[in-house]
Design a protein that fits this description.
With 120 residues, this protein is an all-alpha fold. The protein has helices spanning 3-14, 18-34, 38-46, 50-58, 69-77, 81-96, 101-110, 113-118.
Length: 120
């Protein structure tokens, strides 16, 4: 699936503008990638369109992988918690339709429990 198609899916799921949908998708790829081991980040990136692969592979891992993903979205996107959650859910839903079920399980296994539960 191409990046443009993923952005449109985020837009469909969220009702956000094209620009906000793109920002949410890119932030989601970055946020997930920051919480993965190098090998898992490469596996994740390999299932993404080229533009998103670059984001995933160029992301610097978090020192403390327990950092709350909602707080990260709120800070980076400068939005409130309900909007951050909507961005997260919409972007995750679009990504889940793109990457394999095995990769989804691998990603969730590396996330802090609260984040993995959020992305159930």
């Amino acid at each position: 699936m191409r990046t443009r198609e993923l952005i449109k899916k985020v837009q469909l799921y969220s009702g956000f503008s094209d620009q906000e949908s793109e920002a949410a998708l890119e932030q989601m790829v970055e946020s997930l990638s920051r919480r993965l081991t190098d090998d898992e980040r490469k596996d994740f990136a390999s299932q993404l369109p080229p533009e998103l692969q670059t984001i995933a592979l160029d992301t610097i891992p978090l020192v403390d992988k327990r950092l709350d993903i909602i707080d990260e979205f709120m800070e980076v996107q400068r939005i409130d918690e309900p909007r951050a959650k909507k961005q997260i859910f919409s972007a995750w839903r679009a990504l889940k339709n793109t990457i394999s079920p095995g990769e989804i399980n691998d990603i969730r296994a590396q996330l802090p429990n609260a984040t993995a539960e959020l992305l159930a």
